[in-house]
């Protein structure tokens, strides 16, 4: 039924009090003006007569408010309960970080607000982060201010409108008043452009509505200090922000409502700041006259429209009430007309698409890098100086770097798009009484959706019917075990219920593991749990945190800028001191400053990381952004999820302990191929035995246990010919039990096959597992001549199985074919023999009484298995003989009471998600490399600790690694307290998304570079906040992949270790070519400084500098980027995250190399221009030649012109030979830079043939530039004779000797300091 009140608002249904639900609820009342006055004794703060039975506008007759004939106390308690939950949520949100709103928006609240201090004391300790990119919680508490206010609006519309409940609890109203006053003051925007939010506007209207409807709220407003009211109402701001006419009318209405609550003597000026009163006076005067002529003047003007239930979990609502709220027919669903109306209101069920940077923004990011900006500045400087050739060369460098960097990011984005699979594609929905399959995007709240095994939940549902429904919610909670669902309402006094406890809800993108169900859609698209996280991640994606290599290169670039400015200043000062004009020498200084910038640094860094990305892709790691490659190499802590990363992510049977404590282990337990793996007997454990006889490898109890695993089971294992691999169908636990039984040669299909003869075992009844019994049982009929034998098989929680057992199997030999329990896969035993052996073992002579001692022994065995991280199930069976001539048994006669009683205990089976192959070695490699591995999981702490011990994360010999902590304990610690934990835990169990973020931040606070792995949506925020976020490509959600820097295409921890090694290799190579480039460029700087100080002609022209930086820098540096990893790359500790690219030792080495190359080149240059040897031998000049250079150390050019104008043949020749010496020394330096301390003769040349070819290529370019006519003119070079080459060769040999002496000194120093080298930070501080 749809009705409209006098304000034009349309109502779709009427929510009633908890006493019952009306089949045909009356229309909601209209709020009309009062025409009479009450006596002074009855008058409320508004001085308006409110009639006890509200009159409506329908025919002018008085109609009782809905529910008024029912006990008022029930309706009042229900309303107070709902308002109390909303108030608690609102106070929690506003208390978080001093005020703010959810949904990832940044709100502002006045910090010294006394209401805030009062509210902090009243609010609970649970808060919801409101800052940018904050992660929502894993529970129902990740609310935004808007959601809470929508809920309160819904309560007002359906439970309070028309004075249905004029009296509510005063304390509750006090808290509500304070919370709304705070929410009314929420602002957002920058300091200069701060404005009220939409949530502040909603709270403003709600505040007025509660004044109208609840007397106790009026009293609370009257008790509030006018200063607090003035601060919260912000009337001047609401006028300044503009808005439609009705909002200005509402503003004046609010003034009159509030003044009516205050003591006499107040006027509107008390509610407005003194300096704002003049601006507001005109508005108040205008609309006051309008209100005085309006009979409904005390009512807030509200926009019309249909009022629909706000998106919420509604776990506390009964199915009947929920159906009434959404106007959903429980059997026919919504009508087509209802669907259209709701789609127009709620929108489509589509998750927000991940933020994709357009190509132009990617290019812009490349161009705005500091090093690129420096090159652009150099382009401008050379262009101003008239060096157009230099400008062109620099421009080419910038363009190439931009293309490479942008292309790599675009390519990675395309590769990631191929992995996307957002949400469910289809949904089974009941509409107009028929079940139809539709696109999931077309779902609307109120739709009745059906889900069944193997399907993905298409939206957030409130379940109305469940048939053994179990849903895997690992994408949200991290729990790999399916959650049993129940449609019953959960009555709690909070809406902040963890998702794992919302048994009556199903969440979008979770998977149905078992059973089927039906539910009402309550949230779609961005309002779903997965949608909220997607919105937060997309919003925070705009803020990109620079990586360590970017920070270091930025610092290096700043130092280079300082050095360039200093060089320019030195050149100018020296020139002016020698009597030159300021302007030309300043231009010269700018040109020389260009030489400070290593043009090839950015390009080589980009290309090196791009090549590293390709290598990592071949090793199953997809890198989304280039700098993440190097950052991973600096990681000091890896926080890894357990399920699917450290483990296989598939449940398998680890061991079986039969009733007599004989232990059997399963090899290749997760392989679905029956031919792989076997059951291996490990002998008796320390537990007491039922009898004293010896046990063969195959025992009766073990054989019966395997039969139970096979037959008390609904899972299937099959070979998919199309995919060429084995697949499974069913619950993960039952799949594991089926695999275990097949290792012993038992196949359910063979034992129950009906052809070509009657089956050895025929299923008669099944009692499904439920969360109350924690058991499942099946009844089979065994083929037996002359009599009917019923075989009951049961599995479940060990304590529940033992509670219904009276006997246990004796210690006897097994009945399976020999070899079934051997180390190799057995041949399948005959089905008839299996059935006969099963019956024989379960007869009385094959069993013994289950005494308390034997039961206690079984319990002890169960505890020991659980302590090893196994999930334990109990197994039992029994046989019953019935009259063959009697009526056949029915499901009723084979029910729970009969089937699950007087069972025979067979054994215990332990399931575990086994560690991945090679994980132990990978964890050991991390520890050897000084990287600490921390396990973060949603499993129980005992299971997590057992897995951590088995793979080496917890090591007995290192006490600092043996600490484990649960999420509940972590909740009690602040972020600072977590960072101060000593030793820092190696295992975190039962953690929430907030816990993961806290762990990451605590580690970063300790100075670590953190890599965080994740697969589920609940991991996305922590992955985004880590220094390196690593997502799973196979089992990970698309939201997490978008938040990550690196995506593992094989979901293997070993790939992370390989990526760390590749990252270290990349940083080593980056350091090598940075040392190489800076030593070469520093040599040029020192060379220029020598010439400037001595007032000599510059040894090089600007184009020579650029040519040298291109041919002698970029190809050799690229080859250094391809240098193979050093042998000790994963045995040395991580580099200090706080250190820069260059340390003191590397800086000293760099300067030594630069001084040697500069000094040698300068000596050759001086010899060429100042000595007869240089003039005659090197430059082939005759003593009598008219152009012979006049020996002088003073500059001979025109001081009015640029210092580079001296182009006489002798100076051109001297520059050419100096250029040749420095270029060849730089090329040779590439070989010497492959290691700081290892001899070139030990490294050899063949280990990096790329370098040999790149240096040869550069040398060829140098020769062409020197000897090819035209090109050498453009480069201002002249050909060299053979004497010059002898000088070059001598310089190279001298450089090798000098470099080897430096490396020898470093090795000796390192040996002296080796005993004093401390342990890594990760090891020394327990992390």
Describe this protein's structure.
Its main location: membrane. Pfam families: Cation_ATPase, Cation_ATPase_C, Cation_ATPase_N, E1-E2_ATPase, Hydrolase. InterPro entries: ATPase_P-typ_cation-transptr_C, ATPase_P-typ_cation-transptr_N, ATPase_P-typ_cyto_dom_N, ATPase_P-typ_P_site, ATPase_P-typ_TM_dom_sf, ATPase_P-typ_transduc_dom_A_sf, ATPase_P-type_domA, Cation_transp_ATPase_P-type. GO terms for molecular function: ATP binding; ATP hydrolysis activity; manganese ion transmembrane transporter activity; P-type sodium:potassium-exchanging transporter activity. This is Cation-transporting P-type ATPase N-terminal domain-containing protein. There is one protein chain. With 1327 residues, the chain is of the alpha+beta class. 45% of the residues lie in helices and 13% in strands. The protein is built from 47 helices and 32 strands. Strands 15, 16, 17, 20, 21, 22, 23, 24, 25 and 26 form a 10-stranded mixed sheet that branches. An 8-stranded mixed sheet has the order 13-32-31-30-14-27-29-28, sandwiched between helices. Strands 6, 7, 8, 9, 10, 11 and 12 form a 7-stranded antiparallel sheet that branches. α40 crosses α41.
